Amino acid sequence: MSSPAKPPPPRSSPPLQNEEAQRPSPSLPPPVPVASTSALPPSSPPPVADELDKEYPPDAIVTYRHLLSPQSLTPSNPLRVIGHCDVDAAYAQFEGVRLGLDKTVPIAVQQWQGLIAINYPARAFGITRHMNVSLSSLTISPFPHFFSPAESYLVCQIMEARKRCPELIACHVATLKDGEDEPKYHENPQITTHKVSLEPYRKESQKIIKIFQRCVPEGEIEKASIDEAYLDLSLPIRNLLLTRYPHLSILPPNSPLGLDTPLPPAPKLDWESSEWGIPPSPISPPPKDPSSDSEEGGGGREGNGWSDVALWLGGEVMERVRGEVEKELGYTTSAGISHNKILAKVCSAYKKPRAQTVLRTSAVSRFLRPMAFQKIRFLGGKLGDAIANEYGAATVGDLLSVSLEEMQRKFGEESLWVYNILRGIDHSEVKEKSLAKSMLASKNMRPPLTALEQGQPWLRVLCVELVGRLKEARGETSDGETGEQGSGVWPKTLVLSWREADLHHNNAGSSNKSKQLPFPFHRPLSPDGPILKIATRLLGEILASNSSLKPGTKPIRIINLALGFTGLERGEEGQRGIEGFLRSGASTSAKVGKRKEVELDEERNAVAGSSTPSTSSSSKKLKNDRPRPSSDDNDDDEEVSISDATWTCPDCSKILPIPSHSELDRVKGEHQDWHIAKALQEETVGSVASSSSSGSKREGIGKKSTTTLNKKKKSNAKENVGGLGGWLLKK
């Protein structure tokens, strides 16, 4: 049996072509030592130069405008530098660091009896996530009746893995069970009592992103998944170019083309002996244009221009970033650096693990043409299969002879992006992920749920996970305080989704169905609070028919249960002000405890409208960033007319404009929040009054305001209003 392969020792960064260039100088500091790389994988023979190489565009001529004009920092700028960084066998590394294991120890991450991640030492034994194992070759009998054939196959994986590597450390992912407030690493989790949680991995991912942001504060960071991210290094590299080559910061006098004058010749870089680069495609450079000096601007197929220098510097920056991740967290990474996201992504996996690759324009043809085109992002799945079947193609090179007109005739005008991707052209931007519009926690039910009593423990488990993620988005600390970054984040709706088993099989089910209710703002945020009450109510409505089945009627059997938030948004300034007022009031007023009791009594007395199951139209609504108001999901009719596009408050008689029907609930909710905040403020003022007569007067105001609010809530019991004091449940 072979032993696990040890990681390769660190090697130095790509050398420059001559010794003089390697000495420190103001214009070209010595390269940063490389944290790692491994030997290049066996490569196919260099392709013979042919007409298809001309399908790939050459480097553009770099001008002073590209370097000096802020408006030129666009996706088409030849000095654009994009990095893609991927954590090597992320889940396995996370577990290895958590357990303090040596990097040479073979590790597999286990989810129930299946493998979801294998580190590189374990792969040396031939262990993979998709081993070809037949059930007949192993003795696992009998399988539980609720395991599908696919799940039974997963049971075989871990057994086969241990046969191949007895020293394998199998770490089960963290799980949640009823009664716990956070995921834990249980010794023997059971699929019937525990729920898988990837929260520990998400937290490690956030640590890595923060290192990226700290190391390249001028760059843009886009988190692509839990273990990978894109980094737009264009602006940092532009500044680095001007620092290392200060003569580029001044436009030469008497430049005939002004800012469109090509840059002077770039320094020569020894890509052939570097560990970063890929040899260029074997094609002669195009004839020089007599009207311009392509060598000065870095144009042409041969490269070695300023766009290549920018990528070289991008390689240095990326190595520093990767070194910081490994130094602080102990995680090795692999990276790709190129001029766009697609190329950076495909080349980041070229020399895994613990390495990086720089893909310059002159090498794109040689790199892409022999590649299986379905390995490129977005070209797999059904689209890739359709293209492969239509043209009998397997590699990128097989598709280069297909004209744009032919591709658009077969697959529509939008196939232009496919045509471009095959040629290494991609103008998509690196954008920081905005606030997620939804969150979801789900659990496959084994055996299927048929009664509310069965589902209640699982509902709390889902609530714990969902509340934890919402607190993280809000930036809340353990004492409930909200950080500045997440302040005001709140979902509009709580959605309960489920999938039912068919009549004959427990594990084959219908399409997803869902029910939803508005989610009221409240503090503190707890898994045992309104979220659990709303979820319990919705599940009770779903399974209500099972308690009174007619003869011949099949019961509802839920095989998947999911709880989610939709419509997450940062609240308006007014809402955040109310939230801040509540926090400050809690610390300064002695009446807060009593006030909370009054608010809870109001919640218990409020009447909640009934919810309705989603139809095909409501399923589309769930995908909308701004769902329609909850009144549209209520069986009760609205009592307030909006024919005049205004709404009159019954308490203060203020007339408020209604921009549209969809804005009615928002306007009413925000105005009601104002009334509540005003009443609470008056109570707070009354609690600190020194004079007894003044205190009595303030107390009367507070009682009057509270009475007014109670009357308002009773009169508007059928209205689904959002915000503080919004939709509340029956106790």
Describe this protein's structure.
This protein is α+β, with helices and mostly antiparallel strands. The chain folds into 4 domains: 186 residues, no CATH class; 107 residues, 3-Layer(aba) Sandwich (MutS, DNA mismatch repair protein, domain I); 63 residues, 5' to 3' exonuclease, C-terminal subdomain (DNA polymerase, domain 1); 205 residues, DNA polymerase, Y-family, little finger domain (Dna Ligase, domain 1). The chain is 35% helix and 12% strand. It contains 22 helices and 18 strands. The N and C termini lie far apart (64 Å).
The outline comes out as globular
Query: Quick check: average pLDDT?
Result: 73
Q: How can the largest sheet be summarized?
A: 5 strands, mixed
Report the CATH architecture of the largest domain. Answer: 2-Layer Sandwich
Reported by name, the CATH topology of the largest domain is Dna Ligase, domain 1
CA radius of gyration = 31 Å
CATH homologous superfamily assignment of the largest domain: DNA polymerase, Y-family, little finger domain
Q: Give me the number of helical elements.
A: 22
SSE class: alpha+beta
Query: What percentage of the residues does DSSP assign to strands (E)?
Result: 5-15%
Termini separation? 64 Å
Low-confidence stretches: 1-47, 132-147, 283-303, 573-578, 581-644, 683-731
Number of strands: 18
What's the multimeric state?
A: single chain
Q: In the CATH hierarchy, what is the class of the largest domain?
A: Alpha Beta
- Which range best describes the helical content: under 10%, 10-25%, 25-40%, 40-55%, 55-70% or over 70%? 25-40%
Q: State the domain count.
A: 4
Order of strands side by side in the largest beta sheet? 7-8-1-9-10
